[in-house]
Structure formats: structure tokens, C-alpha cells
Amino acid sequence: MSHGSGGRAMAQLIDELFYRYLGNPLLEQGNDQALFQPPPGRLVTSTDGHVISPLFFPGGDIGSLAVHGTVNDVVMSGARPLYLTASFILEEGLPLADLDRIVASMGAAARAAGVQVVAGDTKVVERGKGDGCFIATTGIGVLPDGIEIAGERARPGDAILVSGSIGDHGVAILSKRENLGFETEIASDSQALNDLVAAMIDAVPGIHCLRDPTRGGLATTLNELALQSQVGMLIREPAIPVRAEVNGACELLGLDPLYVANEGKLIAICPGDQAENLLAAMRAHPKGQDAAIIGEVVEDPHHFVQMETTFGGSRIVDWLAGEQLPRIC
Amino acid sequence: MNPDQHATGRLALHDATQGELIRVRGLVQGVGFRPTVWRLAREAELVGDVCNDAEGVLIRLWGSSAEIDAFCQRLMLECPPLGRIDGIERRLCAGAAPAAFTIVASAGGPVTTGVVPDAATCAACAAEIHDPADRRFRYPFTNCTHCGPRLSIVRSIPYDRANTSMAPFAMCPACAAEYRDPADRRFHAQPNACPECGPRVWLVGPDGADPTAADPQALDAVDAASRLLARGAIVAIKGIGGFHLACDATNAAAVAALRARKRRAAKPFALMARDLDVVRAICRVGPAEAELLRSAVAPIVLLDRLDAPAPGTAAIAEAVAPAQSGLGVMLPYSPLHHLLLQDWERPLVMTSGNLSDEPQCIDNDDALQRLAGIADAWLLNDRAIVNRVDDSVARVMGGQRRWLRRARGAAPAPLALPEGFAQAPRVLALGGELKNTVCLLSPGASQGTAQGGDQEAAQGADQGGCQEAAQGAGQEASPGVSQGTNQVTSQGTSQVQATLSQHLGDLEEARTAREFEQTVALYRQLFEHEPAVIAVDQHPDYRSSVLGRRLAEDLGARLVEVQHHAAHLASVLADAGWAADAGPVVGLMLDGLGYGRDGTLWGGELLVGAYRHWSRIGHLQPFRLPGGERAIREPWRCLYAQLVAGLDWPDVRRRWGDVEVIAALTAKPLAQLDALIAKGLNAPLTTSAGRLFDAVAAALGICREGIAYEAQAAIELETLARQALDEAGYPFAFADDEETWQLDPAPMWAALLDDLAAGLSAERIAARFHLGLAEALAELAARAAQAHGIETVALSGGVFQNRTLFEAVTAALRRRGLRVLSHTQVPANDGGLALGQAAIAALAGGS
Ligand SMILES: [Fe+3]
Ligand SMILES: [Mg+2]
Ligand SMILES: [Zn+2]
Ligand SMILES: [Zn+2]
Q: Given an 8 Å threshold on Cβ–Cβ distance, is B672 in contact with A324?
């Protein structure tokens, strides 16, 4: 990857690469914008910048992540995702082979998620001014009438479900980046959740909240929801699915899996009496086979997220101002 | 308080009978003070009256100077057991003498600010419940003005029965007569009760039925509970400030069952023994300890076990306090306990009624539910516990009482602040994260109406109160006050009071966190406290800090964030009476950890300064905690981190590879730990002294893989050290540059590993570590003190609850000619933090 005047040929190469892997009729219109007819229903849009080191990790790379991240943000409203746009910031010196891999992976991820990348842009920055590759994506989806899923809709008595094991992505990234050399390789859970969510809404149209617990993990996302809905939450530690190798790595590293990022999991909150239905629908789907009911929404003026621990105690699962700093004196 | 001072400050003499206004300040309300005044006045055949008002107690007395002198002297000497006189001021007052001496109803307005601590059953009440002829024979809620529940039953001020959980119990005529009679021990005893009219007690079995009925030999429910205990049962007992779980301490099976059901693996259980003789059969009890056990606080006192229990004494089950040389013991402090233990020649386990880590239950239904898997029976009663108050815990160190936990019986008695705090604003300090307490600074009695004003204003207010009181009694108003204030006694301290709450617990625990805000609100209400300043710790994530920041915003109060160890320093200074302007001291602050000014975790700090200014001039060698909080729970991590910080690991393996602990460490996932340490990834830098103790404990195989409760490793290490106290200490290196005094443990580690290789006993190694560290710390402090021209060293932080270290550091400092300040009124650990925060915030300028 080179930068400046000598980059003209390079720009063409990149364009070809994009058409090869991401090509679709809208992208191929060749204009500075994509023009399409909005389908019936309400439009949903979301945007996300993807910055990750390393660019390639077990279970994915920045290309697939850039699709999954934004698709999932659109999907958490209950919408069906349709289109993506992508903006690439490439650092001078990025091997073309790496870019090829990234864009190929992005294309595959988009196809799997049923979305088209309809507009894009590429900038190359000087060496040292980027971390190889940054990708910002914007997604557009359509939400059928009658579905109301939002962060402020959790109510006391609701059940809290999670679609599978937590902490996989964050631990995978950390162990790869820091070269921690664990015996078993831990793979990221990065995946698009559009089909899982569609199945869930089919089964339980009255879902109250959906959110993907990405940065800050399950703990932070539950706190966000509790605050937004002005409720408290009570979760049970033994009910929270954590893979043994993730748990082992967390114990060794001293990390709390509740605070570790995920990229292919969701939290669902639904009326308590529909929880079993929803759980069954999730478990019937390959992306939700380890789904679990992990707790319930309660009334609480403090909006605490509280966890009954494996040892029978109960502790506050807090917002953290920064990194996890020990508080024990 | 020295009654001789009486003679010195007098301005006015009168031989003829004249009226005097006598103002008494201190802990003089709700403790039976007015009846004492009444009795003394009657015995001296003096006339006048006495009333409570916003500033304490106000007495009008007619007599000669000499008679009134004598009266004041007796008042000082015969102050009621729960009271405390901080000062008496006298001045002349005109007006005609009344015909008799009377107790006058309280003048309106805010009469009782503040609430006194719960007090252990007094001797007179204890005698009554054991006297078959007494109407309170075997009555578990017997109390009087000298004893009984206070803080635990109060809902709001003023402290009147209607505002306590005794409100639903209407006094019978006999009790009401006692309550109204100034000559009676129960005059105005708010919780006064008897079997006719007061709360009752009952026993509940697991099936909900009352086992008392099934036991024809039982005298009553309390006796039936006692008999269940004798048969090995675990009984939940509702006490003064919460529930206990009790069982026979000599019944190994019962103790083991309690441990398993409570899910409490190792943390010692407290004991309750009927009397001192029972205690003396198992523990050494010195005079200071005996006094402490028998005090109205009746705390759990940590005592050394006898090497061999007295002959004929049943052995305490090993599981009561595993790997501990000491036992925590208390005496009965409520009539119910006295009755329960009446036939017990051996101690009962009396541990808090909770699942491990949770706060103890205070409510019947809650206890029935939460303790369902633990207790075999519940001894319940229908007097609600309004405020959870844990048992206080104390230990005698350096010949003095030291609080490890200040709660029942001690809180919320006010602490007098040293000189120089008179202008302090109203401060609310919210303490730390664990062992949390909160502290309120309030203008004391004399400041109640005079803050910012002059003395005349205060006198005017006095006069107004007196007039109202006098009129209320149907007497002549007596205007006209002599100008001089006859200062009878003075403590030489400001009148600003610090009220430190009872131990509230661990704010990471959900119930405690939930109740924290309520408790803060309750204290503000009980002490009529509208804070102008709110003080919090600098840690970004302490719950108390988060709440404090929000509260400051809500109340428009000024927020002061206080560094953790600066707060420890100020806490010990305020505790030891160090005046606001008395100049800097050297402070040795040793604890687990606190958030440092530089964002690292401090915990082995050498400070110089006082309340207003301080700087960090030294510390233990920093090292990384691999795995953050995990390293606090797994001492082997601290050990490895200490070794690689001070020594070269390949070299360690070459030289001491055969030593068991080095081999054990080698089998650990060290590559990952190295990665964490090298990258500083979840491996915060710390100077913690507590973690150094953990590391040494791990080297000796104590709690190497994990601790079951906070400070377990250090406590067990000290237990070992006490068994070999005459050793020479390990060397430490002084890595001082121009302005920083650092203590490097590397040479200690080399010597310790040599000793391990040579097969020296763990006891001797533990002792050598304690003594070496104490000597090095004292030397470090002494060098710093000399460099700064300072002669006083203050000690604070939880590590100084280690008696061996505390006594050795103190002795080593004194040998170097230094004066030592240490805690006697508040705990050295984070339980005393709020006092220091408050003192600093009080003097921190700003608008
Ligand atoms: Fe501390
Ligand atoms: Mg996002
Ligand atoms: Zn009494
Ligand atoms: Zn009665």
C-alpha cells in the first residue's frame, strides 16, 4: 500500500478488489451515491467505526467485524438489515494481500447477513498514522410496523436472556494481541445476528429490548438498559453461560467475563411469561443454541444490576469508570 | 476531665444564696442525666430546676458559691454511666428562688440532636432478671436509663419512645410510673418495658411450630432455645442490632455444620461466654481486656488462647477459628443473652446471622427466609431492629484498646475534634469501599446557635431557653444575666463534633450498597445535618465516591476528593488530638491499597504533612499485581510478582530451585503472568504493604492458592510470628534518592529463601519478616523525620491492626526518640477513613 501521487494505480487496484468481493447492482451504478427505493416500513440506520488490533484473529478479522458490528446494531431494533456503506482508512504499508483478505471476508460476511455494500470510500494515510486499517460502516434496515423494541422498554417482571456464551471475542482478541499463548485457541464469536433475531421475533413479537453486549460486556450493557428503563436487574451467576476455556483465561488474567466484549451475542428482555417461548426459539437456532435465561428485571430506584454469586452472596455489578481497578483495601 | 480545674476559672464569688445558670455540655441527653441532677440537688437541699435544650442540659440552682461548687463537683463524679460531661459553664442569674427542685419539660425546638449508642445490660437490670421475686424475672427486654437499645431502635429524632420501634408498646401503669418518677432508674427510659406491656420472644422451629411446647422442661422460649443449643442445634437469635447464629462452641459437629451451611470456609467465628470466668478458662484476659469485655460497649475482644485450657474445660472446636492463635469473645450484652447463657459453662458461637459476605438479618421474616438453610430454629421477638448495628470488635495493643470494628455500643458517640476546627463547615464524609463508615462534622453544642456569632449571642439564646423552661414550669421568668461566664471546666478542645457511623460494611455487597444511601439519609436526619461540604475518596469507582459526587450535586454542597492515605493520616491525627495548626508529622500509612495521586495503587506510604498539606516522600518498592483483584485473592501471584520485581527469576531458580515454593511457582502459568507484568496488562502498579504480607505468607505455604476472607494470609502469618518472637529481623534495602525514601524488600527475599532452603521453621521466618519490616519501617520513618526536622510519627492503615508489627514499629520508633501517634478512638483500617476525610475537607479552603 502506498500513499500520494504514486498511488493512482493502487487506487484502481483497490477499486477492482471492492467490485470483485462486494459487487452488486447498486454499487456498480458507479456514482458517488447509491440510489434505491425504500421498502415499506420504518427505516433504521446505524454507524460504527471499527478499529481492532490484530486485524486478523481467530474467528474473524476486521472485515467481517465491520459487517457484523453494524448489522447487529441495526438488527437490535428488530429491523431487517438491507444495505451497508463502508469507509476505509488504510495505512501506507498495509500488504495488499491483507487488504484482499479483509475485503473478501467482508464480502462473505455481507452475503451471509443478507446485506449489500452499496457505497464506499477509501483513504490512505501516512505510515504511522493508522493501525493498518480502519473501517467505518453505516447500515440501513427496515422495521416492519408493530414491532417496538427499545432500551427503555424493560419492565419489572421481565426476563433477561442471553443468546450464548459471553466473553469469547474479547478474550480471543486479547490473547492473540498480547501473544498470551494459551493452550486452547479461543475464537471470537463475531457473527451477524439478523437471522436469529428474525426467528426470535417470529416466536415472541412482544420482545421489549434487544442489545448486543459489545464494548464493556454484559455488565455494562445491562447497566445501560437498567438506567434507560429506570429499573433494576437481578442476574444469577451460575446461569450465565461462559465457556470453560474463556473462564480459565479470565481467571488467569484476572478479568471478569461480565466486562469482556462480545461481537456475536445479544441480550433479550421480554415479558416473564414469554421467556420460555423465547428461549426455545433461540435454542432452536444455531446462533442461539447456548441461550439462557440469566435473570429478571426488578423494581429498583437505584437501578442496580445485582448478581447472586455462585457462592450465595450477592454483589453489585457496577458501571466502571475506567479499567477494572481493584477496590479492595 | 479534671475536677481540680474547677477552682481555677472562677470569676464570681457569692456567699449569699444566689441563682446560677449552669450549662452542661457533652453526652448529657437520653442518658439519665436530669434525674441525676435532680437527685444531687435534692440531696444537697438546693432548689431550682433542670431542663434539656438544644445545647445540652441547663440547670438553675440557688445556693451559695460553695454549695454550688460542691454540687458541680459531685455532678462530674456521678455523671451517669452512659453520659459524658465535656464542659460546665456557670454564671449568675437573677430571680427569686423557687420552692423546690424540679425537672422541667424540655423547651420546644430541636431538643435532642443526636442519638447515643446501644448499651449492654447494667448490673441492676441483670440482677432483676435473675430474681424470681422481681416483676421482670426472666424478662428479655429489661432495660433502664443506664442500659438498653438506643441507636438500633431509633427511627427519627427527637429520641422519644414514639420515634423508636418501642412505639407500638404502650406502657402499663407500673412501667409508666417508673418512667415518670425522677427517683426511678427508669425515669424517661424510652425503651422501658416489662412482661405485662413490652415485646415478647418466641421460638420457631423449621416446621414453623414452636419447639418450646414440645419441651415440657423448658421454662420459656429462651430456655427452650438454650436447651436446643445444648443438643447441638444451630439457632438464629434476634439480638440488639441484628441476628446471630449460635451453636455450642465445643461441639465440633455443630460448628462444622454451621460453617458448611453458612458457606463460610475459614473466617473465625466470634464467641459469647456467660462471664469472665468462662472466658478465663480458655483465654488470657489482662486487666485492660477484662475492662473492655465488661464495658457498656461489650465488644468482641480478640484474646490470646491459653496454651492449655483450664482443667475440666471442654475444648473449643478447631473449626471456630482455624489457624488462629486468638479467639474473639464477648460477654452477654442484652437480657436475652444473659438468660440464654445462664446455664452455660462453655462459650457459644455467636456469629452474624447471614450467608457469608451478606449483612446480617435484622427482620423476622427476612431471617426466616434467608437463614432457612442454616438455622434449626429461630428465637424471634416483636421489637423491630430499625438500624443494623454489628458487634464492635476490639483488641488491646500497646496496652490500649484499639477498635478493629467500631459499631454497637461505640457508634454514634461523638468524637471531639482537636483544636483548630472551630470554624469547620458541616462536612459529610462518605468513607471507603470496604468496612465503610460515614462521618458527619457538626458544630458542637456551644456552636449550635453561636456559630459565626459572638459569645453574647449564645448567652442570649441560653437565657431564652431558660425563660421558656422556667415558664413551662409555672415559675417566674428571671431576666438579667451577669456578664461574666464562669468557666468551670474546659477540655481545651473545639466544640466541633465528629459523628462516625457504625460499621456499615462492604459496599460491593448488594444489600449493603442498597442500604448505604438510606443510612446516610438517616444519619443526616438524626443529627440534623445539612452538609456544606461532601468528602469522598479519590478512587473513581468506590460506590461511596460515586454517591458522594451525586449527593454534592443534588445538595449544592462543595465536593472534596481526598486521597486515601492522606485520609488515613488525618484520621490518626484527629484521633490522637493533633491540632489543626500543630505542624507536620511523618506518617507511615500501611494498608491493602488505595487510589494514589498518580493513578497507581498505593499502600505502603511514607507521608509528611498534616491536614492541610501533605506530600508523599517515600513508599515500598512498587511492583505489579498480575491479574489485578485476582492477585489480591491469590497470594501466589503477589509472591511471584515480588520475586521478579526484586530478584532475577532464572537466578532464583538456580539458587533456590529445590525449595518447595519455587518448584510450586515454576509449575504455574508464569509465561502469561510475565506477559501481564511486562505489558502492565491488568497488572496495576502498587506499593501495597498488605500484598507484601500476602507474598510472604504464600512463600510459607499460607493461603498460597487463595484467601477465604480479607487479610486472611496476613492474619495467619502473624499467628505464626507470635510463636517465635525473639528472632532477628530480615534486612531491607533503603533505595533512597534525594527526595524519595524507598524500602526495597529484595534482600529480605534472598534471606527468606535461604532460610527456607535451610529448613528454618515457618514460625521463625514469619517472626523474622515482621521484625525486619518493623525495624526497616521505623528506620525509614526516622530518617525522613530527621531530614524534615520532625519528631512525631503517625501510624495508620489496616496493616497496623497487626499487633506484632504495630508493637514492634512503635517500640523501634520510640527507641529512636520519636513520638508515636496511633489510633485509639477509631479503627486504623478503612473504618476510620471517613474521620480523616472529614478533617481534611473541614480545613480545605474553597468556596
Ligand atoms: Fe486503606
Ligand atoms: Mg456499535
Ligand atoms: Zn439497666
Ligand atoms: Zn410494663
A: no
